[in-house]
């Protein structure tokens, strides 16, 4: 599904390549058979407005939106596992899934980064790609609602992903659920998180060779070679 590649590109950190190759994305949208005309136009308007900005301004706005706080993080497992140990194993499982389909990562991006996951789905047969979107539909709906709440243009990308997934998620209920949710990207909220992490850090320094510390060492030793192998395209 080439449409997933387009949305993946639009969800990535803006760079000069997007400005240079925007014409190709417009062509894909105009020729799409999977998107309704109004939806293709909505994505085209987003692309037009994004590339009408100065690149540095677009990059700053992107970082402000997706890199401050966790509520709008594009790391899928952030919304499923948080900081639990299960997140590490989920990363390994997803890497294995990519490898089984011939996708070798050659970047430093984490495997659960949404644009990367969409790139992966785009290589699958359509039914499997839709199934993959449905698997993450609750996360997409949550992100969509939060972006709508913040009146962000990026919300349209998640609206289109939910449509492509034929999602059964009740978006109205999701919006209602987050209506009174406290923002986690304010200076006060970020300071609170920083203080909490500092407390955890100093607490960990006193753990010595506790079971938790040993587990972390074993996990790092098991996972690090896989990441090294992926980033080098399978060559040591």
UniProtKB/TrEMBL annotation:
User: What is a single cellular component term in the Gene Ontology annotation?
Assistant: cytoplasm
What is the organism field in this record? Kluyvera genomosp. 2
- One of the protein's GO biological processes: chaperone-mediated protein complex assembly
Q: Share what the entry says about its subunit structure, partners included.
A: Binds specifically to the NarG subunit of the apoenzyme complex at two distinct sites, one interfering with membrane anchoring and another being involved in molybdenum insertion.
Q: What is this protein called?
A: Nitrate reductase molybdenum cofactor assembly chaperone NarJ
Q: Which GO terms describe its molecular function?
A: metallochaperone activity; unfolded protein binding
State the UniProt keywords alphabetically.
Chaperone, Cytoplasm, Nitrate assimilation
Among SUPFAM superfamilies, the record links this protein to: TorD-like
Q: Which family does it belong to?
A: Belongs to the NarJ/NarW family.
PANTHER family from the xrefs?
NITRATE REDUCTASE MOLYBDENUM COFACTOR ASSEMBLY CHAPERONE, NITRATE REDUCTASE MOLYBDENUM COFACTOR ASSEMBLY CHAPERONE NARJ
**Where would you find this protein in the cell?**
Cytoplasm
């Amino acid at each position: 599904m080439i449409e997933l590649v387009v949305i993946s590109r639009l969800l990535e950190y803006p760079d000069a390549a997007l400005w240079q190759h925007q014409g190709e994305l417009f062509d894909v949208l105009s020729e799409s058979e999977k998107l309704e005309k109004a939806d293709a136009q909505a994505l085209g308007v987003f692309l037009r407005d994004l590339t009408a900005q100065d690149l540095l301004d677009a990059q700053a706005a992107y970082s402000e939106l997706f890199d401050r706080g966790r509520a709008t993080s594009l790391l899928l497992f952030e919304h499923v596992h948080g900081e639990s140990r299960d997140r590490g194993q989920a990363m390994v499982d997803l890497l294995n899934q990519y490898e089984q389909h011939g996708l070798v990562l050659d970047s430093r991006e984490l495997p659960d980064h949404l644009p990367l996951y969409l790139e992966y789905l785009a290589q699958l047969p359509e039914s499997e790609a839709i199934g993959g979107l449905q698997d993450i539909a609750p996360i997409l709906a949550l992100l969509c609602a939060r972006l709508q709440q913040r009146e962000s243009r990026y919300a349209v990308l998640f609206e289109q992903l939910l449509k492509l997934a034929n999602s059964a998620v009740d978006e109205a209920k999701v919006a209602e659920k987050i209506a009174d949710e406290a923002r986690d990207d304010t200076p006060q909220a970020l300071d609170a998180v920083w203080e909490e992490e500092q407390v955890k850090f100093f607490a960990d320094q006193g753990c010595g060779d506790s079971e938790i510390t040993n587990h972390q060492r074993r996990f790092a030793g098991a996972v690090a070679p896989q990441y090294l192998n992926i980033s080098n395209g399978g060559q040591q």
